[in-house]
Every structure is written in C-alpha cells, then in structure tokens.
Automatic annotation (TrEMBL):
It comes from Candidatus Scatomorpha merdipullorum. SMART domains: MR_MLE. The lineage of its organism: Bacteria, Bacillati, Bacillota, Clostridia, Eubacteriales. GO terms for molecular function: magnesium ion binding; racemase and epimerase activity, acting on amino acids and derivatives. This is Dipeptide epimerase. Belongs to the mandelate racemase/muconate lactonizing enzyme family.
C-alpha cells in the first residue's frame, strides 16, 4: 500500500465562548483535516489544530504546512512512519500541528490495514477514557459556578486555569473546592504566568485545597527554575509548554524539572513522537497526561486512543469538543458523554469527514 494523494481542508467549528488562559485567548474554532489516499483504496484521516501562542501555527499555517509536508509521505507505505517523520523534519522544524495531521492519518491507515481500531493497534484493551474538564479564566464566582455544574454532571477531575492574577487565582480555587466538595480532583494550570515566588505563595495559600498537580507555572524555557520550584512545593509539577519533543522530555528528566508531562499530539507532531515522549517519561518514573488544543472529534479520537493504550498516561485532558458546536461535516471517531470518551470499534480512527 502506497500513499498516492493528499487533500486538506479547513473546518470551522463554532466556539461556545472564548477560552481565556494566562498566555492568550482562543476566540475562534477553525481546524484542519488531512486525508491521505492510497493505491489500496484505503484512506487515512488526520487533524492539525494549531494554537498560535503555543505551536506558532494558525489554520492557514497548518494548511500551508501540510501541503509541503505531505511530500514526505508521497509514494511511501504508511508503515514507514520513522522515514516520514525524518523527511518531515528535514522540510520544516516546528510546524508540529501540521506534522500531527500527517502522522495521525498514517496511523489511521496502519490501523485500518491491520483491521483494528486505533486504540487496539496501539496496544490498548479498554475503549473508554475518562477526561477532566478545564475551567478557563473568568471571575472566581463564575468559575466556581461552572465547577459545581461539572461536578453535578459527573466530572471527577477538573483543571483550573490560573496565572493571570494571583489573588483571583487563590479566590477561584478556594471557591471551586468549596463548590465541588472533597470528592473532585483538582489540577491547576498557570500557563507560564507565575514567577517562582508567586507560585510558592499561591500554593501555600491553597495548601488545604488538595491540588493534584500544578501545570507549567514558569516560562517554558525555565527548566532550572521548574527544578528548584519542585523542591519547594508539595503539589507535583507538570510540564506542558516546556515539552514538545522526546528531547525536551529527556532534558526535563536530566534537570529533574517535573514529575509529570502533559503530552499533546499538536505539540509533539503526532502519535509517533508522543509515544517516544511517554517512553522517555515512563523509563524515568514520570507519569503523563494526554492533553489537547482545539481538536475536533478526529484529533480527540487519536489522542484518546493513545491514552487508552498507555498505562503510564494516567490522566486525560481531552475536553476540546465540549467547547465547540461541532461541525456536522465531521463524524464518528468517538462518543463523548459527560467525562466519558468511548472509542469506536471500527478499524482505524473510525472517523469520517466531508472533503
Ligand atoms: Mg497547559
């Protein structure tokens, strides 16, 4: 089986409301899907969902990226995943969301060729993944009301955006803990918005709130700062913007800069490098979470398949489809019900899209 053609298209999904985080705001819901055709009649679907202030790509960049990167896959078998990644890296550094689209389409094809749903192709047994839900920055009272609603709908894990105003952060987290009671697990994500003294002060103030993890309090490149901060905090640190690649994961391990890594297909450039990041982390005793950008059900199905397959991925933060009115032009892949993501049993991703 050889790749013979590529199509790509922007799909617009209506955002229910803007998503504000400390490092920027997501105010529109476009994403890019890629379809790789083969001479065997099978095709693979993949998604590239860039967030400019994280991956450096918007939809236009992803579209132009995949046009160029698809050259790396043309004429090859989808099983030549290593060679395709090497060829893509020789065309562009970065462009990770565009690379993720090509990579995921190749995995969709491999799993289809094997006659297995992707989560099984990746080694998984159970098709269900439980996700948390993220609460964006807003007035503390509004964040607490949203948390109470999520807890009532069965969400047992909530991730709270922080990092803009430390006093508001403290107020919001306290109100949220009060609103959801002791049974809901809470994580914080400061999106690089704090200094080390601020992080220490806020986490001291929240000592009685039972925080499972603090994600990316310091700027992405400050691994030495993360390493020093880790020793001063009770809550485990998670690296997100600090970790795009297996090499980043190795540096985090070397510098002892985090206990957890938030893997996102859009940062890593797809499933193949994501598995390598997880392997580096697992070998060093770090656990991982599988997160997302603004993917549709195609990218979420891919990410959830990896989360379902890897025991070292202990948490999922795969809630992007809940923030959009989904496009009727994108179907299948997974069924989301409350915090539960149910993967399909069709071969591959089981997703379809109108091209
Ligand atoms: Mg994050």
């Amino acid at each position: 089986m050889r790749i013979t053609g590529m199509r790509c298209r922007r799909f617009d999904m209506r955002l229910k409301r803007p998503i504000k985080v400390a490092s920027g705001e997501i105010s529109s819901g476009g994403t890019v899907l890629v379809r790789l055709d083969t001479d065997a009649g099978l095709y693979g679907l993949g998604e590239g969902s860039g967030v400019p202030f994280v991956t450096g790509e918007d939809c236009e960049d992803v579209l132009s990226g995949v046009e160029r990167l698809a050259e790396a896959a043309m004429g090859r078998s989808p099983f030549e995943i290593q060679a395709v990644h090497a060829a893509m890296d020789a065309i562009y550094s970065g462009h990770t969301a565009a690379k993720a689209a090509i990579d995921t389409a190749l995995f969709d094809l491999m799993a289809k060729a094997a006659g297995l749903p992707l989560y099984r192709f990746l080694g998984g047994i159970c098709p269900v993944v439980e996700t948390d839900r993220t609460i964006a920055l807003a007035a503390p009272e509004d964040m607490a009301a949203e948390a109470a609603g999520l807890a009532a709908r069965g969400f047992r894990h909530i991730k709270i955006k922080t990092g803009e105003d430390p006093e508001a952060d403290i107020a919001a987290v306290r109100l949220i803990r009060e609103a959801v009671g002791p049974g809901v697990r809470l994580k914080l994500d400061a999106n690089q918005g704090w200094t080390a003294p601020t992080a220490r002060r806020v986490m001291r103030a929240l000592a009685s709130c039972g925080i499972d993890a603090l994600e990316q309090p310091l700027p992405a490149r400050d691994l030495h700062g993360m390493s020093a901060l880790r020793r001063a905090l009770d809550a485990p640190l998670m690296a997100d913007e600090s970790c795009f690649s297996p090499e980043d994961a190795a540096n985090i391990v070397r510098l002892d800069a985090a206990e957890l890594i938030n893997i996102k297909l859009m940062k890593s450039g797809g499933l193949h490098p994501a598995r390598q990041i997880n392997a580096v982390a697992a070998a060093a005793g770090l656990r991982c979470m599988l997160g997302c950008m603004t993917e549709s059900r195609v990218g979420i199905a891919a990410a959830a398949s990896l989360a379902a397959a890897e025991p070292n991925i202990i948490w999922a933060d795969l809630d992007s489809t809940m923030f959009f009115e989904e496009s009727a032009e994108i179907r299948g892949g997974c069924t989301v019900s409350g915090p539960r993501i149910l993967l399909g049993e069709e071969p591959g991703l089981g997703a379809e899209a109108d091209f």
